[in-house]
Amino acid sequence: MAREIRIMIDDETYEELQRLAADDHEDPDQYASRRLTDDLNRARFLEGARAFAEEHGQAFADRFGAGSSSHAA
To answer: I need a labelling partner for 36 at 20 to 30 A (CA). Which of 13, 44, 52, 66 fits?
Structure first.
């Protein structure tokens, strides 16, 4: 189910929103909706990754090692 929210933004922010939407060939409302959804999905993903790392991080490091070194040639 879709919900409608209303937010107030200043003129400068709205002009930037219009410019970015035009660059993506989208209506400003659709662009803002997509960006908000993308940002919330990213936040949810990062929260899940953080919870995974807290719960399983040590076991993962014990099994596969820790650090950012690569064995790629």
So the answer is: 52
E strand or H helix at 32, and its extent? helix 28-64
Contacts by 24-33, CB closer than 8 A, 24 or more apart: none
Reported pTM: 0.69
Band of pLDDT at residue 73, cut at 50, 70 and 90: very low
Q: Measured between alpha carbons, how far is 14 from 17 in angstroms, rounded to an integer? A: 5
In whole angstroms, what is the distance from residue 1 CA to residue 5 CA?
13
